[in-house]
Write a structure and sequence with these properties.
This protein has 292 residues and is of the alpha+beta class. It contains five helices and 15 strands.
């Protein structure tokens, strides 16, 4: 068990995944005491003993996790309902893996040197982020002076609302076709999303455990909107690229997407579908960057 004496004792979001639950950190380790999130007020006190299941030891982050950004973004609601044509719905589970609609908006930049995205629910509440990792200073210089992204390996970290990594996407250097390898933060493989063709309507195979579990199918040659199907060719989700205005499209590198998941999916298909919008953007849209 890793201890972190610089982290004060108190109530923090349960690291073991309990929904809307706080767990007490005594300054050196997690305790058995839990508390409903909405009831945690003021200076916490250790509650009475409760019968709980044994908890496996886990490292505590070196810093208290940052809370999600407050307040929904009304522009996202417009993006989802008017541009992507998704009917307004009620709240989902509040995480990257339990919301029926994920909005993936890329940070607008004149020159793309480090890919960054914000991930929100359909009301505009931030659920997480995506950040490019592992870039050297030389690689950033090369991306600035030339459009050679396709000849470089790119790694993107998908993080939850507390900044903790949940998935790692690696797109190896390519010549014509892209593939994206999806793993857990500890390196455990989830699957692979592999481009199947270069001309016509672009398709990707979704593979896991040595077999194809689904596919991503472009609806037209521009490869803006995609249907996501399972192994039986039933549509389970949809990606829609949304229009952000002429000025933003012409003078920045930002691409925005709405991922609509039609129903709760099993693993590993769920994690691979969550990664799809980033896969499409990294595989197809990020190869013409820089001044070259």
């Amino acid at each position: 068990m890793t201890t972190h004496s610089n982290t004060p004792a108190g109530w923090y979001p349960d690291p073991h995944g309990a929904d809307r639950t706080l767990r007490y950190w005594d300054g050196s380790q997690w305790t058995e005491h839990t508390h409903a999130e909405q009831q945690a007020q003021g200076q916490p006190q250790v509650p009475a003993q409760q019968p709980v299941q044994p908890i496996p030891a886990q490292p505590f982050p070196s810093q208290v996790p940052a809370q999600p950004a407050a307040g929904p973004d009304p522009r996202v609601q417009q993006q989802v309902q008017q541009q992507a044509g998704v009917a307004a719905g009620g709240p989902g589970g509040g995480t990257l893996f339990s919301e029926p609609v994920l909005v993936v908006n890329q940070k607008a930049k004149l020159i793309e040197l480090t890919n960054e995205y914000k991930v929100m629910d359909q009301q505009g509440n931030q659920l997480g982020s995506v950040v490019q990792v592992g870039q050297s200073a030389l690689k950033k210089v090369l991306r600035f002076v030339a459009s050679i992204d396709q000849f470089m390996t790119h790694k993107l970290e998908i993080r939850d609302s507390y900044g903790q990594p949940v998935l790692l996407l690696t797109r190896p250097r390519k010549f014509l076709k892209s593939r994206v390898i999806v793993t857990r933060p500890d390196g455990q493989p989830v699957g692979e999303i592999a481009q199947q063709n270069v001309f016509g309507k672009i398709n990707f195979a979704i593979n896991a455990d040595g077999r194809q579990v689904g596919a991503i199918k472009a609806e037209n040659w521009r490869a803006w909107n995609f249907a996501i199907v399972d192994h039986a060719d039933n549509e389970v989700a949809r990606i829609t690229k949304t229009w952000e205005g002429l000025a933003k499209t012409l003078f920045t590198t930002a691409d925005n997407y709405v991922l609509q998941i039609h129903y709760q999916l099993p693993e590993p298909l769920l994690s691979l579908v969550v990664a799809t919008a980033l896969t499409v953007d990294t595989a197809l849209k990020q190869d013409s960057r820089g001044l070259g």
